Amino acid sequence: MTHVVITGAQGFVGRVLVKRLLSDGLGGRAVSKLTLLDIAFDAPHADRRVVQLAGSIAHADVRVLAYSTPVDAVFHLASIPGGAAEKNYALGRSINLDATLGLLEDLRGHTRPPRFVFASTVAVYGEQLPATVDEATLPAPALSYGAHKLMGEALVADASRLGWVQGCSLRLPGVVARPGDGAGMMSAFMSQLFWRLSAGEPITVPVSPEGVAWWISVEQCVDNLLHAATVDPERFNARRSYQMPVLRLSIAEVVDALAARFGDDRKALVTYAPDPFIERLFATYPPLLTPEAERLGLRHDGNVDQLITRAMSG
């Protein structure tokens, strides 16, 4: 029996991860039980292997139900995103930090330490980035969201040292293409570009065309999460933390590629209205070097065309 738990399962990445686990299994093993946690669910899941637990992971009773049978792997995706966490510090801390510690501590009694994959974020680097970011770059979060995620990475490493889990944290860049308006997410424009331009709809983006961001498709992101849950843990670095490899592309490069895919008239649909704060946080990214992550087997999408294909495949 392979039992997998996913927090934030109704979210953008979570939904794709659920589909992949049910269809492909985990590390060559079929998933026999998949426990999903989120605040609410749209509808009961059709697959009988799925158990849906509605409620906040900040509450111990919800976590206890998730762990009521032995767990083989936990994917901790749930979070309060940056903008929303800044507006409500207590809520952000309860999910982004306190619940992470709770999820780890609740696994202390398991006979066999489960795999634990924590979705961290590039927000740990903050606003003032060096000319090149590499795997030795020191984090300096500029938002509570990034600070709490960085603390979560330390908690995962410590819980692994203590033998509670076999953990690994992955720092996620801008994952695209998230459906909807991305309420509460200051980086929502990155995904909206894909959907608006593919549909021939106008969009105003809060950054300049020369603004450069780090990008990864949701499918490649899920590939990396699954790999982190199955790779030999003896290969993990001492931090048990990795930056996901990314494509570094300007907004104009992405717009040009979308126009090449969906029609050259799409370029005229984009209005640029740079917001200095959002530009600093999401569109001033330097080159990113990730040889350590790539040696572990983590990957980016390869090129902008593949990024578009995989970002919109869901």
Structure in words:
This protein is of the alpha/beta class and 314 residues long. It folds into two domains: 3-174 and 215-243, Rossmann fold; 177-214 and 246-286 and 302-311, Alpha-Beta Complex (UDP-galactose 4-epimerase, domain 1). Helices cover 38% and strands 18% of the residues. The protein contains eleven helices and twelve strands. It has helices at 12-24, 60-66, 82-87, 89-105, 144-161, 188-198, 218-230, 251-262, 276-282, 291-296, 304-311; strands at residues 3-7, 33-38, 50-54, 73-76, 115-121, 166-172, 174-176, 203-205, 212-217, 241-243, 247-250, 270-272. The strands form three sheets. A seven-stranded parallel β-sheet has the order 3-2-1-4-5-6-10, sandwiched between helices. Helix 4 (89-105) packs parallel to helix 5. The longest helix has 18 residues, at 144-161. The mean pLDDT is 95.
Short description:
Helix content is about 40%, strand content about 20%. It has eleven helices and twelve strands. Strand 5, helix 5 and strand 6 form a beta-alpha-beta unit.
